[in-house]
Automatic annotation (TrEMBL):
Pathway: Amino-acid biosynthesis; L-serine biosynthesis; L-serine from 3-phospho-D-glycerate: step 3/3
NCBIfam families given in the database record: HAD-SF-IB, serB
GO molecular function: L-phosphoserine phosphatase activity; magnesium ion binding
GO-annotated cellular components: cytoplasm
InterPro entries: HAD-like_SerB, HAD-like_sf, HAD_sf, PSP
The keyword Hydrolase appears for this protein: yes
Identification of the protein by name: phosphoserine phosphatase
Keyword annotations from UniProtKB, A to Z: Amino-acid biosynthesis, Hydrolase, Magnesium, Metal-binding, Serine biosynthesis
Organism per entry: Penicilliopsis zonata CBS 506.65
Chain residue ranges for the region called Disordered: 1-22, 105-152
Transmembrane stretches, start-end: none
Protein family according to the UniProt entry: Belongs to the HAD-like hydrolase superfamily. SerB family.
Active site: D253, D255
Length: 469
Protein backbone atom coordinates (compact mmCIF):
# COMPACT_ATOMS: atom_id res chain seq x y z
CA UNK A 1 0.00 0.00 0.00
CA UNK A 2 1.36 3.38 -1.00
CA UNK A 3 2.44 5.71 1.76
CA UNK A 4 0.19 8.64 2.40
CA UNK A 5 2.89 10.68 4.15
CA UNK A 6 3.21 14.16 2.67
CA UNK A 7 6.68 14.76 1.19
CA UNK A 8 8.79 17.22 3.13
CA UNK A 9 8.94 20.63 1.44
CA UNK A 10 12.51 21.79 0.81
CA UNK A 11 13.58 24.76 2.84
CA UNK A 12 13.77 28.10 1.07
CA UNK A 13 17.24 29.54 0.76
CA UNK A 14 18.01 32.18 3.38
CA UNK A 15 20.53 35.02 2.97
CA UNK A 16 22.90 34.49 5.84
CA UNK A 17 24.99 37.10 7.54
CA UNK A 18 28.11 35.47 6.11
CA UNK A 19 26.93 36.29 2.57
CA UNK A 20 27.07 40.03 3.08
CA UNK A 21 30.09 42.15 3.61
CA UNK A 22 30.53 44.08 6.81
CA UNK A 23 33.16 46.52 5.65
CA UNK A 24 33.83 48.48 2.49
CA UNK A 25 37.55 48.44 3.24
CA UNK A 26 37.58 44.65 3.65
CA UNK A 27 36.06 44.32 0.20
CA UNK A 28 38.63 46.67 -1.31
CA UNK A 29 41.96 45.47 -0.02
CA UNK A 30 43.80 47.39 -2.75
CA UNK A 31 43.97 50.27 -0.28
CA UNK A 32 46.41 48.21 1.77
CA UNK A 33 49.76 46.69 0.81
CA UNK A 34 49.48 43.17 -0.56
CA UNK A 35 49.86 40.52 2.15
CA UNK A 36 51.80 37.32 1.52
CA UNK A 37 49.60 34.46 0.35
CA UNK A 38 49.47 31.79 3.09
CA UNK A 39 46.49 29.88 1.72
CA UNK A 40 45.85 27.96 -1.44
CA UNK A 41 42.77 26.80 -3.25
CA UNK A 42 42.93 23.46 -1.47
CA UNK A 43 42.52 25.20 1.86
CA UNK A 44 39.41 26.92 0.62
CA UNK A 45 37.69 23.87 -0.91
CA UNK A 46 36.97 20.65 0.99
CA UNK A 47 39.29 18.47 -0.95
CA UNK A 48 37.67 15.98 -3.29
CA UNK A 49 34.23 16.28 -4.77
CA UNK A 50 31.98 19.26 -5.18
CA UNK A 51 30.83 19.47 -1.57
CA UNK A 52 32.15 22.53 0.25
CA UNK A 53 33.24 22.40 3.88
CA UNK A 54 31.12 25.38 4.83
CA UNK A 55 29.22 28.28 3.40
CA UNK A 56 31.29 30.18 0.82
CA UNK A 57 31.54 33.87 1.67
CA UNK A 58 30.46 35.99 -1.26
CA UNK A 59 31.60 39.58 -1.77
CA UNK A 60 34.60 38.93 0.43
CA UNK A 61 38.21 38.04 -0.18
CA UNK A 62 38.71 34.39 0.93
CA UNK A 63 42.46 34.96 1.12
CA UNK A 64 42.57 37.53 3.88
CA UNK A 65 45.68 39.60 4.50
CA UNK A 66 47.47 39.24 7.78
CA UNK A 67 46.71 42.48 9.68
CA UNK A 68 49.87 42.07 11.76
CA UNK A 69 52.03 42.39 8.63
CA UNK A 70 50.34 45.41 7.08
CA UNK A 71 52.71 48.39 6.87
CA UNK A 72 52.20 52.03 5.93
CA UNK A 73 53.26 52.64 2.35
CA UNK A 74 54.42 56.17 3.18
CA UNK A 75 52.50 57.63 0.22
CA UNK A 76 50.20 60.54 1.05
CA UNK A 77 47.44 61.34 -1.45
CA UNK A 78 46.45 65.01 -1.36
CA UNK A 79 45.24 67.41 -4.01
CA UNK A 80 46.86 70.40 -2.33
CA UNK A 81 50.48 69.30 -1.94
CA UNK A 82 52.96 71.48 -3.80
CA UNK A 83 54.51 69.65 -6.70
CA UNK A 84 56.23 70.35 -9.97
CA UNK A 85 54.22 70.75 -13.14
CA UNK A 86 54.03 67.29 -14.65
CA UNK A 87 52.13 68.32 -17.78
CA UNK A 88 53.80 67.48 -21.05
CA UNK A 89 55.53 70.26 -22.96
CA UNK A 90 54.38 71.47 -26.39
CA UNK A 91 50.81 70.36 -25.71
CA UNK A 92 47.94 72.92 -25.80
CA UNK A 93 46.85 73.78 -22.28
CA UNK A 94 44.11 75.79 -20.64
CA UNK A 95 44.32 77.60 -17.31
CA UNK A 96 41.32 77.99 -15.03
CA UNK A 97 41.65 80.49 -12.19
CA UNK A 98 38.98 79.65 -9.60
CA UNK A 99 37.96 82.39 -7.15
CA UNK A 100 35.80 81.64 -4.13
CA UNK A 101 33.28 84.46 -3.68
CA UNK A 102 34.05 85.13 -0.03
CA UNK A 103 32.04 88.35 -0.04
CA UNK A 104 28.79 86.48 -0.69
CA UNK A 105 28.74 83.01 0.88
CA UNK A 106 25.80 80.91 -0.24
CA UNK A 107 23.59 79.16 2.29
CA UNK A 108 20.79 76.63 1.81
CA UNK A 109 17.55 78.31 0.76
CA UNK A 110 15.06 78.54 3.59
CA UNK A 111 11.44 77.71 3.01
CA UNK A 112 9.21 80.80 3.34
CA UNK A 113 6.95 79.00 5.83
CA UNK A 114 9.77 78.77 8.34
CA UNK A 115 11.47 82.06 7.55
CA UNK A 116 12.06 84.24 10.59
CA UNK A 117 12.04 87.36 8.44
CA UNK A 118 8.37 87.09 7.47
CA UNK A 119 5.75 87.69 10.12
CA UNK A 120 2.19 86.37 9.92
CA UNK A 121 0.15 88.47 7.53
CA UNK A 122 3.15 90.02 5.80
CA UNK A 123 3.78 89.52 2.09
CA UNK A 124 6.71 87.36 1.09
CA UNK A 125 9.62 89.26 -0.49
CA UNK A 126 9.73 89.26 -4.27
CA UNK A 127 12.05 86.70 -5.88
CA UNK A 128 15.35 88.01 -7.13
CA UNK A 129 17.53 87.15 -10.10
CA UNK A 130 21.25 86.46 -9.46
CA UNK A 131 23.47 89.20 -10.89
CA UNK A 132 24.97 88.16 -14.21
CA UNK A 133 22.50 85.36 -14.92
CA UNK A 134 20.06 87.32 -17.09
CA UNK A 135 19.98 90.49 -19.23
CA UNK A 136 17.81 92.14 -16.58
CA UNK A 137 17.36 91.73 -12.84
CA UNK A 138 13.79 93.05 -13.02
CA UNK A 139 11.64 89.99 -12.32
CA UNK A 140 8.69 91.63 -14.11
CA UNK A 141 10.58 91.74 -17.42
CA UNK A 142 11.49 88.06 -17.45
CA UNK A 143 9.43 85.46 -19.37
CA UNK A 144 6.42 84.11 -17.52
CA UNK A 145 7.86 80.65 -17.03
CA UNK A 146 8.66 78.68 -13.89
CA UNK A 147 12.24 79.52 -12.87
CA UNK A 148 14.80 76.77 -13.23
CA UNK A 149 15.64 75.12 -9.91
CA UNK A 150 18.72 76.61 -8.33
CA UNK A 151 21.73 74.31 -7.89
CA UNK A 152 22.23 73.13 -4.34
CA UNK A 153 24.78 75.37 -2.61
CA UNK A 154 27.69 73.22 -1.50
CA UNK A 155 30.16 75.66 0.03
CA UNK A 156 28.28 75.61 3.34
CA UNK A 157 28.88 71.85 3.48
CA UNK A 158 32.49 71.60 2.35
CA UNK A 159 33.93 74.94 3.43
CA UNK A 160 33.92 78.63 2.39
CA UNK A 161 36.96 78.24 0.14
CA UNK A 162 38.07 76.24 -2.92
CA UNK A 163 37.87 72.83 -1.29
CA UNK A 164 39.39 69.60 -2.54
CA UNK A 165 35.97 68.30 -3.52
CA UNK A 166 35.22 71.55 -5.36
CA UNK A 167 38.42 71.18 -7.37
CA UNK A 168 37.74 67.50 -8.07
CA UNK A 169 34.24 68.31 -9.27
CA UNK A 170 35.59 70.97 -11.63
CA UNK A 171 38.09 68.56 -13.19
CA UNK A 172 35.36 65.96 -13.64
CA UNK A 173 33.14 68.49 -15.40
CA UNK A 174 35.88 69.66 -17.77
CA UNK A 175 36.90 66.10 -18.59
CA UNK A 176 33.29 65.23 -19.39
CA UNK A 177 33.18 67.98 -22.05
CA UNK A 178 35.68 66.22 -24.31
CA UNK A 179 34.08 64.96 -27.53
CA UNK A 180 35.11 62.28 -28.18
CA UNK A 181 35.99 61.44 -24.59
CA UNK A 182 39.66 61.81 -23.72
CA UNK A 183 41.48 61.45 -20.42
CA UNK A 184 42.91 64.72 -19.10
CA UNK A 185 46.08 65.60 -17.21
CA UNK A 186 46.10 68.49 -14.75
CA UNK A 187 48.16 70.34 -12.19
CA UNK A 188 47.27 73.14 -9.80
CA UNK A 189 48.62 75.92 -7.59
CA UNK A 190 47.04 77.61 -4.58
CA UNK A 191 47.75 81.28 -5.28
CA UNK A 192 46.91 82.87 -1.95
CA UNK A 193 47.43 80.14 0.69
CA UNK A 194 47.83 76.40 0.82
CA UNK A 195 45.26 75.85 3.56
CA UNK A 196 41.68 76.77 2.66
CA UNK A 197 42.65 78.70 -0.49
CA UNK A 198 40.43 81.39 -1.96
CA UNK A 199 42.20 81.41 -5.35
CA UNK A 200 43.39 78.26 -7.11
CA UNK A 201 44.96 78.04 -10.56
CA UNK A 202 44.32 74.79 -12.46
CA UNK A 203 46.23 73.92 -15.64
CA UNK A 204 44.89 71.05 -17.72
CA UNK A 205 45.51 69.42 -21.08
CA UNK A 206 44.44 68.62 -23.64
CA UNK A 207 41.60 71.13 -23.96
CA UNK A 208 38.31 70.02 -25.53
CA UNK A 209 38.51 69.64 -29.29
CA UNK A 210 37.70 73.12 -30.71
CA UNK A 211 35.88 71.50 -33.64
CA UNK A 212 33.28 70.24 -31.17
CA UNK A 213 33.54 72.89 -28.44
CA UNK A 214 35.23 76.20 -29.35
CA UNK A 215 37.07 78.03 -26.58
CA UNK A 216 34.56 80.92 -26.61
CA UNK A 217 31.71 78.46 -26.01
CA UNK A 218 33.67 76.58 -23.35
CA UNK A 219 33.98 79.80 -21.34
CA UNK A 220 30.20 80.10 -21.21
CA UNK A 221 29.29 76.42 -20.99
CA UNK A 222 26.20 75.66 -18.94
CA UNK A 223 28.02 72.97 -16.93
CA UNK A 224 30.66 75.46 -15.81
CA UNK A 225 28.01 78.04 -14.99
CA UNK A 226 26.20 75.50 -12.83
CA UNK A 227 29.47 74.54 -11.16
CA UNK A 228 30.03 78.21 -10.26
CA UNK A 229 26.55 78.45 -8.75
CA UNK A 230 26.90 75.22 -6.78
CA UNK A 231 30.27 76.03 -5.25
CA UNK A 232 29.86 79.83 -5.05
CA UNK A 233 32.95 80.46 -7.17
CA UNK A 234 33.93 82.24 -10.37
CA UNK A 235 35.98 80.53 -13.07
CA UNK A 236 38.21 82.44 -15.49
CA UNK A 237 39.45 80.34 -18.41
CA UNK A 238 42.50 81.37 -20.43
CA UNK A 239 44.72 79.70 -22.97
CA UNK A 240 48.09 78.99 -21.42
CA UNK A 241 50.99 80.66 -23.21
CA UNK A 242 53.73 83.17 -22.55
CA UNK A 243 51.45 86.10 -23.39
CA UNK A 244 49.02 85.14 -20.63
CA UNK A 245 51.72 85.68 -18.03
CA UNK A 246 53.53 88.62 -19.65
CA UNK A 247 51.23 91.54 -20.48
CA UNK A 248 52.55 95.05 -21.13
CA UNK A 249 49.56 97.41 -21.51
CA UNK A 250 46.46 97.80 -19.30
CA UNK A 251 43.55 100.16 -19.97
CA UNK A 252 40.70 100.86 -17.52
CA UNK A 253 37.27 102.38 -17.49
CA UNK A 254 36.92 105.03 -14.77
CA UNK A 255 33.37 105.27 -13.39
CA UNK A 256 32.36 102.21 -11.30
CA UNK A 257 35.70 100.59 -12.12
CA UNK A 258 38.74 102.54 -10.92
CA UNK A 259 36.38 104.69 -8.85
CA UNK A 260 33.11 103.69 -7.20
CA UNK A 261 31.19 106.77 -8.35
CA UNK A 262 29.38 107.70 -11.56
CA UNK A 263 30.75 111.22 -12.05
CA UNK A 264 27.90 112.59 -14.13
CA UNK A 265 25.45 111.47 -11.44
CA UNK A 266 27.50 113.30 -8.82
CA UNK A 267 27.41 116.50 -10.91
CA UNK A 268 23.65 116.13 -11.32
CA UNK A 269 23.24 116.33 -7.54
CA UNK A 270 24.32 119.97 -7.66
CA UNK A 271 21.32 120.98 -9.72
CA UNK A 272 18.71 118.54 -8.43
CA UNK A 273 18.38 116.35 -11.54
CA UNK A 274 20.14 113.32 -10.08
CA UNK A 275 17.19 110.95 -10.45
CA UNK A 276 16.67 111.70 -14.13
CA UNK A 277 20.37 111.55 -14.99
CA UNK A 278 20.92 108.35 -12.99
CA UNK A 279 18.09 106.62 -14.85
CA UNK A 280 19.61 107.50 -18.23
CA UNK A 281 23.07 106.44 -17.04
CA UNK A 282 21.83 103.06 -15.86
CA UNK A 283 20.07 102.35 -19.14
CA UNK A 284 23.12 103.42 -21.15
CA UNK A 285 25.48 101.21 -19.11
CA UNK A 286 23.12 98.26 -19.62
CA UNK A 287 23.23 98.83 -23.38
CA UNK A 288 19.57 99.88 -23.60
CA UNK A 289 20.44 103.31 -25.07
CA UNK A 290 22.95 104.55 -27.60
CA UNK A 291 25.85 105.81 -25.50
CA UNK A 292 26.69 108.94 -27.52
CA UNK A 293 23.06 110.08 -27.69
CA UNK A 294 22.46 109.40 -24.01
CA UNK A 295 25.68 111.25 -23.08
CA UNK A 296 24.59 114.36 -24.97
CA UNK A 297 21.17 114.17 -23.32
CA UNK A 298 22.69 113.94 -19.84
CA UNK A 299 25.25 116.68 -20.51
CA UNK A 300 22.43 118.95 -21.66
CA UNK A 301 20.90 118.69 -18.19
CA UNK A 302 24.11 120.08 -16.67
CA UNK A 303 23.77 123.51 -18.27
CA UNK A 304 24.59 126.25 -15.79
CA UNK A 305 26.64 124.12 -13.40
CA UNK A 306 29.73 126.05 -12.16
CA UNK A 307 32.87 125.03 -14.05
CA UNK A 308 34.77 124.42 -10.80
CA UNK A 309 32.45 121.53 -9.96
CA UNK A 310 35.23 119.04 -10.69
CA UNK A 311 37.42 120.50 -7.96
CA UNK A 312 34.58 120.02 -5.48
CA UNK A 313 34.00 116.47 -6.66
CA UNK A 314 37.55 115.33 -5.91
CA UNK A 315 36.79 115.26 -2.20
CA UNK A 316 33.90 112.83 -2.63
CA UNK A 317 35.40 110.52 -5.26
CA UNK A 318 36.08 107.06 -3.81
CA UNK A 319 38.86 105.07 -5.45
CA UNK A 320 37.88 101.40 -5.73
CA UNK A 321 39.44 98.89 -3.31
CA UNK A 322 42.65 97.45 -4.71
CA UNK A 323 42.98 100.02 -7.52
CA UNK A 324 46.10 101.63 -6.05
CA UNK A 325 47.76 98.27 -5.35
CA UNK A 326 46.88 96.94 -8.81
CA UNK A 327 48.31 99.95 -10.63
CA UNK A 328 51.43 99.99 -8.43
CA UNK A 329 52.08 96.30 -9.13
CA UNK A 330 51.55 96.70 -12.89
CA UNK A 331 53.86 99.74 -13.02
CA UNK A 332 56.52 97.74 -11.16
CA UNK A 333 56.24 95.12 -13.91
CA UNK A 334 56.82 97.76 -16.58
CA UNK A 335 53.23 98.18 -17.81
CA UNK A 336 51.89 101.19 -19.65
CA UNK A 337 48.59 102.22 -18.01
CA UNK A 338 45.68 104.31 -19.30
CA UNK A 339 42.18 105.32 -18.23
CA UNK A 340 39.65 105.40 -21.08
CA UNK A 341 36.54 107.00 -19.68
CA UNK A 342 33.11 107.91 -20.91
CA UNK A 343 33.23 110.50 -18.11
CA UNK A 344 35.03 113.82 -18.16
CA UNK A 345 38.63 114.85 -18.75
CA UNK A 346 39.34 116.91 -15.59
CA UNK A 347 38.62 114.01 -13.25
CA UNK A 348 40.27 111.45 -15.54
CA UNK A 349 43.50 113.49 -15.44
CA UNK A 350 43.26 113.85 -11.66
CA UNK A 351 42.76 110.09 -11.25
CA UNK A 352 45.72 109.37 -13.55
CA UNK A 353 47.89 111.44 -11.22
CA UNK A 354 46.55 109.64 -8.16
CA UNK A 355 47.20 106.16 -9.55
CA UNK A 356 50.32 106.84 -11.61
CA UNK A 357 48.66 106.20 -14.98
CA UNK A 358 50.46 107.17 -18.19
CA UNK A 359 47.41 108.31 -20.19
CA UNK A 360 43.94 109.75 -19.55
CA UNK A 361 41.26 109.97 -22.24
CA UNK A 362 37.72 111.20 -21.51
CA UNK A 363 35.06 113.60 -22.78
CA UNK A 364 35.54 117.39 -22.76
CA UNK A 365 32.73 119.62 -21.52
CA UNK A 366 32.28 123.06 -23.05
CA UNK A 367 32.61 125.97 -20.59
CA UNK A 368 31.14 129.47 -21.00
CA UNK A 369 34.17 131.67 -20.32
CA UNK A 370 32.06 134.69 -19.36
CA UNK A 371 30.00 132.98 -16.68
CA UNK A 372 32.42 130.11 -15.96
CA UNK A 373 29.56 127.62 -16.15
CA UNK A 374 28.94 124.53 -18.23
CA UNK A 375 27.05 125.16 -21.45
CA UNK A 376 25.48 121.71 -21.57
CA UNK A 377 27.47 120.75 -24.67
CA UNK A 378 30.58 118.72 -25.48
CA UNK A 379 33.64 120.26 -27.13
CA UNK A 380 33.22 119.29 -30.77
CA UNK A 381 36.96 119.17 -31.54
CA UNK A 382 37.39 116.12 -29.28
CA UNK A 383 35.83 112.77 -30.20
CA UNK A 384 33.28 111.24 -27.85
CA UNK A 385 34.88 108.42 -25.87
CA UNK A 386 32.27 105.78 -26.66
CA UNK A 387 32.67 102.03 -27.18
CA UNK A 388 34.27 102.32 -30.63
CA UNK A 389 36.64 105.08 -29.47
CA UNK A 390 37.77 103.03 -26.46
CA UNK A 391 38.65 100.11 -28.72
CA UNK A 392 40.44 102.47 -31.11
CA UNK A 393 42.46 104.00 -28.27
CA UNK A 394 43.44 100.51 -27.06
CA UNK A 395 44.79 99.63 -30.49
CA UNK A 396 46.55 102.97 -30.97
CA UNK A 397 48.28 102.79 -27.57
CA UNK A 398 49.40 99.24 -28.27
CA UNK A 399 50.73 100.25 -31.67
CA UNK A 400 52.48 103.31 -30.25
CA UNK A 401 54.48 101.16 -27.83
CA UNK A 402 54.91 98.21 -30.24
CA UNK A 403 52.87 95.93 -27.98
CA UNK A 404 50.99 92.97 -29.53
CA UNK A 405 47.29 93.09 -28.75
CA UNK A 406 47.64 89.69 -27.06
CA UNK A 407 49.75 91.43 -24.38
CA UNK A 408 47.03 93.89 -23.40
CA UNK A 409 44.46 93.98 -20.59
CA UNK A 410 41.19 95.94 -20.54
CA UNK A 411 38.89 96.35 -17.54
CA UNK A 412 35.42 97.88 -17.47
CA UNK A 413 31.86 97.48 -16.25
CA UNK A 414 29.49 99.03 -18.83
CA UNK A 415 28.09 98.16 -22.22
CA UNK A 416 30.35 100.84 -23.74
CA UNK A 417 33.34 98.75 -22.57
CA UNK A 418 32.40 95.54 -24.38
CA UNK A 419 34.27 96.28 -27.61
CA UNK A 420 37.56 96.92 -25.83
CA UNK A 421 37.01 93.90 -23.55
CA UNK A 422 36.74 91.64 -26.59
CA UNK A 423 39.63 93.33 -28.40
CA UNK A 424 42.22 92.98 -25.61
CA UNK A 425 44.26 89.88 -24.90
CA UNK A 426 42.49 89.72 -21.53
CA UNK A 427 39.20 91.59 -21.14
CA UNK A 428 37.76 91.63 -17.62
CA UNK A 429 34.23 92.78 -16.80
CA UNK A 430 34.72 94.01 -13.23
CA UNK A 431 31.55 93.98 -11.07
CA UNK A 432 29.75 94.73 -14.29
CA UNK A 433 26.14 95.24 -15.32
CA UNK A 434 24.16 92.05 -15.95
CA UNK A 435 24.24 92.23 -19.74
CA UNK A 436 27.97 92.95 -19.73
CA UNK A 437 28.67 89.95 -17.50
CA UNK A 438 26.83 87.73 -19.97
CA UNK A 439 28.64 89.03 -23.04
CA UNK A 440 32.15 89.77 -21.73
CA UNK A 441 34.91 87.20 -22.31
CA UNK A 442 35.81 87.24 -18.59
CA UNK A 443 33.98 88.46 -15.51
CA UNK A 444 35.01 88.98 -11.89
CA UNK A 445 32.96 90.19 -8.94
CA UNK A 446 35.53 90.22 -6.18
CA UNK A 447 36.11 92.68 -3.39
CA UNK A 448 39.47 94.02 -4.63
CA UNK A 449 40.88 94.83 -8.06
CA UNK A 450 44.05 93.04 -6.92
CA UNK A 451 42.28 89.84 -8.03
CA UNK A 452 43.19 90.73 -11.61
CA UNK A 453 46.86 90.07 -10.79
CA UNK A 454 46.03 86.42 -10.09
CA UNK A 455 44.93 86.09 -13.72
CA UNK A 456 48.54 86.76 -14.74
CA UNK A 457 49.73 83.77 -12.75
CA UNK A 458 51.06 85.82 -9.84
CA UNK A 459 50.67 84.43 -6.33
CA UNK A 460 50.26 86.27 -3.04
CA UNK A 461 53.98 86.49 -2.32
CA UNK A 462 54.59 87.95 -5.80
CA UNK A 463 51.88 90.54 -5.25
CA UNK A 464 53.28 91.49 -1.85
CA UNK A 465 56.71 92.02 -3.40
CA UNK A 466 55.31 94.17 -6.20
CA UNK A 467 53.16 96.37 -3.95
CA UNK A 468 55.85 97.03 -1.33
CA UNK A 469 58.61 98.23 -3.66
Amino acid sequence: MASTQTPTRPERPVLRQTLSSGSFIQDHQQYKPCAPVTQNIGDVLRGSGDVLRGPLMLNANPISPDPRKITDSGVTHSMFNSHADTLARDVPKLVATIFYKSASPVHPPQHPDVSSHVKPGERLPSPTVPVGSAPTVDIEKLPREPPAPEPEPLDHLYGPYVSQLCLTNFLQIVESLHTPYQRMNSSHRCLDRDEQPRVVEVTFSPPPNPEYLPFADLRKHESIWRFEREWNVEVVLQQENVFRRHKRLAVFDMDSTLIQNEVIDEIAKFIGVEEKVSEITARAMNGELDFSASLKERVGLLKGVPADVFEKLKSIITISPGARELCKALKALGFKLAVLSGGFQPLAEWLAGELGLDYAFANHLEVDEASQTLTGKLVSSFPIVDAAQKRSLLHSLAEKHSIPISQTISVGDGANDLLMLHAAGLGVAWRAKSKVQLEAPTRLNGESLVDILYLLGLDESDINDLTTV
